[in-house]
Amino acid sequence: MAPKEDMLPPGWEDLDRQMGQLFMMGFDGTSVSPEIRSLIEDYHLGSVLLSAKNLKSAEEATMLVLELQTIARNAGHQVPLLISLDQENGGVNSLYDEIYIRQFPSAMGLAATGSKELAYEVALATAQELKAVGVNWILGPVLDVLTNVRNQPLGVRTAGDDPQEASQYGVQSMKGYQEAGLATCGKHFPSYGNLEFLGSEAEMPIITESLEQLSLSALVPFRNAINQGLDAMMVGGVSMSSAGVNVMHACLSDQVVDELLRKDLKFDGVVVSECLEMEALTHNIGVGGGTVMAKNAGCDVILLCRSFPVQQEAINGLKLGVENGIIGRHRIEQSLRRVLALKARITSWEQALNPPGVLSLTQMQPSHTNLSIRAYNNSITVMRDKNNLLPLSNIITPAEELLLLTPLVKPLAASAVTLSAKEPRHGSVEPVAALDRSASVMSGESVFKELGRSLSRQRNGRVLHTSYTANGVRPIHEDLIKRANAVIIVTADANRNLYQQAFSKHVSLICQSQYSRSGERYDKPVIVVAVSSPYDFVTDLSIGTYICTYDFTETALQTLVKVLCGELTATGSLPGSISRSQKIHQSRQHWLVENWNEDRDAHALDALLDAVRDDCPKGQRSELLGATSNSFLLREENIDEAHFVVRNSSTQALYGFCATYFFRSTGTGVIGCLIVDPSRRKLSIGHSLHSRAIRTLLQQKGMKRFQLGSRLPGIYLGIPTASPVERKRLRQWFANLGWNTALSRPVCSVVLRSLATWSPPDGLTATLQNAHVKYDLAYGTDFAREILDHIKTNARQGVADIYRIALGGAPNCGVIRAKRSSDDLIIGTIVIYNERSMLAGHMPALRASNTPVGGISSPVISPCADDYSTVMQGLILLAIKQIRKLNAQSVVMDCVDGDGNFDCLSSMGFSMLHSFEEVNSDAATWTMMHSS
């Protein structure tokens, strides 16, 4: 007999009734359709998804929900329906009503207020309004972290790029929803914050971060929400491809649902699948098969949005899966218990058949209106106002003309419905012919027309308004720019709609080249307003006045007008790492940082290196073993190096040291080392050194990107990862400075000991002999062009410079080549060197041994190689044979990319010496943070 707690309540023995509770389905139309009626009556559907297409007003929504619940009650349902919808605020709301439903800022807009209490209040108010119309399940909060802020479709639907901040706001929203009596559903697990889009809609976006990377950043809000009592979780329809993970659809994978979500994160609430009607799934698997996979993966509720035949296919597929034994009844019953427990917590027939309705909404309206205004007033953010263009009265009089340029964008549902019914106010704004009148009908221009009217009323002056498209700056724009005395450009997700960036930059340049009637050149004032993602121009300092509203609802744009006209002072602050990094740099630069002086500081640096080595935990090998002050000095013609110290000028002792290199050939600035005396950490010495390093590198002509970790010299290849605790601390430390550590790349050094007794793995020699590849050893510069052309296939910084040193360092350095026998094409290379070579001076791992050692470095295998592993092992085998001829007792191999390569090397007898995470960053990020 089953344990009592695992038994189902009476009346749930029927399989069809059980299965019906495990689906959430939507339908078309604003009234009950025959299809949704059939699903409730004939298929015992337990959850209904409502969208904006179903909901015309709060009053009609209440009637619709009540009718759905009444149908379920009359059909013999033992428990009420779960009625769910999206109501994220900002631009994502399913229920709009100008009279009864208030508009609130998006998740990022709320985070910009800096108030978690306000986020809670807004969530509570939102949920109270939904509860009044009969909704009992909100699909929120959004718990994604924008680990990549650019080109990600979620944008302002998230709280930003900081995991802890996103977690705090997500949990507060969750608590607000629950306080009002709604069930919650976190989304979009495991993360929609850094997706790669590779092809058509039939191809899934991909998560390429490893589970370890996700755990340190993207999963933080999900984990915290689970610990705080999240009711349900929606698992996304994305694929995953990284070390140890290869998943076609996350919501169909037991590795994601049962292993990661259930076991690792210990979530025992209701798991909801992404909508299985997505084209990528129907094209590759089919809905029936997908439903079976989702159920076996661990999903409790399967979502199908609107197609009745597809919904029937899913139900039949699930039933067939049970009948065929593919799905065990225990899976069905376990999910049913979770769904029934959720329903018991948040609804009853008494509640479901007696929604509070419009009367309750009327009572809420005054306080919710005040809350909406307060939230928007605190969210608007002025990122920059270099020339004091705000308020507009600083730069333009009521008699002068203001030009408003807005993009053609898809309207927000609320704005489109609300504003289309409004009559234009005569004389308040001068309309200009739209560029494409046929397109303007669907463009949502009414939202921005009202913005123009509001601006005209508020400043009591004329506003010229026209739109722009991907066609760029047209003659009509040029004429209006000449005519106007100041220009406001509106952008909406310009990072994804790149024409908006180009248009704004072009208009800005035009305005910088204006001439007065007397022939004098002047800059016409330009203000750029991002009404969705704040990242449109966050790092572009050529836009001197930049405002972010986080959405373009009526209330948001009314608040913008108040800021533009000086009635309101903007107090919002961009959430996340960029703002925090600015504050850190402003508040912690109090140590005097001096340029490295070799004569003065070499001895003191050696003493500092000893102190850091001595601080290394027992049993752990310090990355600085073998390093001396001379190890950091490259003295290479094509590499500019600048090193910095914080020191005691009285005792000459060094408290901190930072090494930087600028590789001119690629425009890359590298921080190759940043160390602080262990006894003087947490005193901002590291912050001061880092700030000086970035500022100096920014002065280099042609700077394109930054890198944390250097292949040359190969001391710290990135953030050390030997100790999990120290790795986590360092990752967070650098993340706080603005580095996107979630996008780091693994790199390591390995060692092969006991070389005298070593023998290659069984069969390796035979495999190499049978391959259509030949190997040779090249010395000297005669082979440089051919080899350097080959290694262009590897863009890692410093690799080319290692090869140049090796080719010029005969007889102590050389390059082993793998060539295709058929055409002599180089398909692989590796550097080989000994202890007397110049390279050895820059690779401390080679110098740390007391016995003779040989070095191997920087394998580069061409993408056209037929068998990557075979070519790699062939190069290494020949290198080992050459090194053994020199009576070396071990081999150190440095600058090895990725986890995949280590598997290949461990099979040959190599063990890990040091592991690192190399981090890259766009130069634009640092340009903004270090501008004066």
How would you describe what is shown here?
This protein folds into 4 domains: 22-362, TIM Barrel (Alpha-Beta Barrel), CATH 3.20.20; 380-575, Rossmann fold, CATH 3.40.50; 591-725, Gcn5-related N-acetyltransferase (GNAT) (Aminopeptidase, 3-Layer(aba) Sandwich); 759-908, Aminopeptidase (3-Layer(aba) Sandwich). β26 and β27 (668-676) form a beta hairpin. The longest helix has 23 residues, at 357-379. Strands 24, 25, 26, 27, 28, 29, 30, 31, 32, 33, 34, 35 and 36 form a 13-stranded mixed β-sheet that branches. An 8-stranded parallel β-sheet has the order 13-10-7-6-3-2-1-14, with helices on both faces. Strands 15-23-22-19-16-18-17 form a 7-stranded mixed β-sheet, with helices on both faces. With 932 residues, it is an alpha/beta fold. The chain is built from 33 helices and 36 strands. α5 (116-133) runs parallel beside α6 (163-179), α11 crosses α12 and α26 (764-770) packs across α31 (868-885). The radius of gyration is 32 Å and the shape is globular.
| Assembly level | single chain
**CATH-defined architecture of the largest domain:** Alpha-Beta Barrel
CATH superfamily of the largest domain: Glycoside hydrolase, family 3, N-terminal domain
Radius of gyration: 32 Å
Number of domains: 4
Tally of alpha and pi helices: 33
Q: Portion of residues in helices?
A: 25-40%
Structural class, by secondary structure, is: alpha/beta
How many beta-strand segments?
Answer: 36
Strand percentage lies at 15-25%
Distance linking N and C termini: 74 Å
Q: Could you list the spans in which at least 5 consecutive residues all have pLDDT below 50?
A: 412-428, 430-443, 582-589
Largest sheet: 13 strands, mixed
> Overall 3D geometry?
globular
Q: What is the CATH third-level topology name of the largest domain?
A: TIM Barrel
Average pLDDT over all residues:
88
